[in-house]
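The protein record quoted in full:

***
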Amino acid sequence: MRGKALIVGGAGQIGHAVAAALLADGWRVIVSSRSGAGPAPAGGELVACDRDQPGALAGAVGEGVDALIDVAAYDADHARQLLEVQADVGAFVVISSASVYRDAVGRTLDEAASRGFPELPVPIAEDQPTVDPGPDTYSTRKVALEQALLQHVLRPTTILRPGAIHGLASRHPREWFFVKRILDRRSAVPLAYMGESRFHTTAAANIA
């Protein structure tokens, strides 16, 4: 066995893909969801972990894991939860968001409807500025998560910033817009922004 992994919030599309990849590579995989309900990945285990309950994350970690993959971490409080269990974790992988980036005039994806889309470089480098951490928006909370974790973590840690994720087990599959029109035998498919959008999607399989 390669190791033992815990996927926190693993019932959705990212957890589905990560569990499949780890299991195929010979890992023991434990997937947590808030209720503990739902089918376990083939060859994996399913546990309940409502992280809003004190001690729940430590209970899911149990005697320790080689890797903790958190696909549901959202803010600085969740970073503190991870830090509390780091003595029993070999390494962390935490999902953040591409929405944390801002352009030269401060525009972000959070405010795209009111201020227009940010003009970001292609490709986006790791030194691209982000929004400030705080409790106000999805993006500022994600930055607060990143900074609170990276400032104090003592274990190897990887933070990923995907955007517009798609894949199997999605509750709102982004592909359905196109697949449905193909099944309906429509001759044309409308594209937003005349098909010139550069809003790059991320496959859950690639995250895995």
